[in-house]
Amino acid sequence: MTQEQHVPFPTHLLIETTTRCNLRCKQCAHVIHKYDFADMQLETFYKLRPLFPTAEQVALYGHGETFLYPHFFEMLAELKQHDIFVYVTTNGTLITEDVARRLVELQLDRLAFSLDAATPELFNEIRRGADFEKVLSNIRTLNALKKQARRDDKPILSIMYCAMKSNIQELPKLVRLADELNMTHGVAVMNIYEYGLSGESLVEHPELAEGPINEANRLAQQLAVPLGGLENGFEGLRIALVQLSAWDRLYRNYREFKRSFDRKNLLKTKWSRLLDRLNRDNSLHQEETTTEIRNKQESGKTIRVKKCRDPWEFLFVDVHGNIRPCCTSHRIMGNLHAEDFMTIWNNPKYQEFRAKMVSPDIPEECKTCIRKAWQTIPYAPTL
After folding, report:
1. Which residues are CB-contacts of 368 (< 8 A; sequence separation ≥ 6)?
2. Alpha carbon of residue 309 to chain centroid
């Protein structure tokens, strides 16, 4: 086998625990019954055990509500026996006090709440079957338990926001809500796919998102609330550079301390950030010079591809044990109940897919993917 055929184990795994959900959110594939309801068998999960010693991050969610899955805590307990960052997304409706306590005790690393509005009426209209005030109460219960443990992390909290025409104006309010609810990992913006929901996508209308996103970005900078995902699915969006005054920087530090349950550790973190920034500043000139030389040396044909390393570093396993290149592709590379993982990971399907990812003819589903940005790279055809 060539070196290309010996691809190292993926470091990031997405394990779909269930496709069952207790909500019928208007932008979700479940509204048109795109997915059958099913739970992952523990046997499927156990087939992934050889990957755990080298995995860096594992996400336990998919096209359903994770906390409906009866074996979730068994999976979490096993993964936490390894040095793995475990991440979960939830609609927040099932975070009871008992669930919250177990999440803190088992040291889940990150928990993202799907919140698409900060206005109760709009939230309840989008997240059909959920109650805005109840979800916020559940988050506050979890925060109370974290405060008892004097813990800013384990789990770090964040908001996952689906941007649509009908709710894009809510983004600045969600940044404020993230600040109020100790969401130290901030807000991740995701542009929606069109399922049964017609005319809501902002993919072709970045001008509608520009104002609210820039307002939210300015507010996020002032409040020290991370705001991510703006580079994906909003091609052509103009984001203004935010210049913070001395007062804004002081207020930013105040908000971080106000949110923190562990201020001693926060001071250590801030000191580490300062040292990292100084090191980056010292190396900036050298990096720019190196880049300039490299750009002058590079010549010849270039191609436009997606800025995506998923086929080399990421693995999605659905509830049935099917291996897919990512969570948005429906291309099946193999099944864990028919073949062992290494056979699938290095099979001809995967090798062909990886080769196409860095060619002028990238896979069809990648061309329309709004989760990854485009980039231009030198093209060296394989002989």
Report:
1. none
2. 14
Rounded Cα–Cα distance for residues 67 and 47 (Å): 22
CATH number at 12-256: 3.20.20.70
Question: CA angle, corner 147, sides to 143 and 150, nearest 5?
Answer: 140
In this prediction, residue 283 has a pLDDT band, given cuts at 50, 70 and 90, of low
* Placement of tokens 């044909």 in the chain: 301
Domain ranges across the chain: 12-256, 304-378
CB of 63 closer than 8 Å to CB of 32: no
Q: Under a CB-based contact definition with an 8 Å cutoff, are residues 307 and 377 in contact? A: no
DSSP state of 12: E
Q: What phi and psi, each to the nearest 5 degrees, are found at residue 239?
A: -110, 120
Two tokens, residue 262:
């562990």
| Biggest CA-to-CA distance, the chain | 62
In terms of pTM, does the model score above 0.70? yes
Radius of gyration of the chain (CA): 22
Closest CA to 119 of 170, 45, 53: 170
pLDDT tens for 23-62 read: 988 888 777 666 789 999 999 999 999 999 999 999 999 8
Q: What is the DSSP string of 234-250?
A: -TT---PPP---HHHHH
How many helical (H) and strand (E) elements, i.e. helices and strands, does the chain have?
13, 12
**DSSP designation for 69:** -
Could you tell me what percentage of the chain is helix, strand and coil, using 3-state DSSP and rounding each to the nearest 5?
40, 15, 45
Gap between the Cα atoms of 298 and 27, Å rounded: 44
CB atoms within 10 A of CB 247: 9
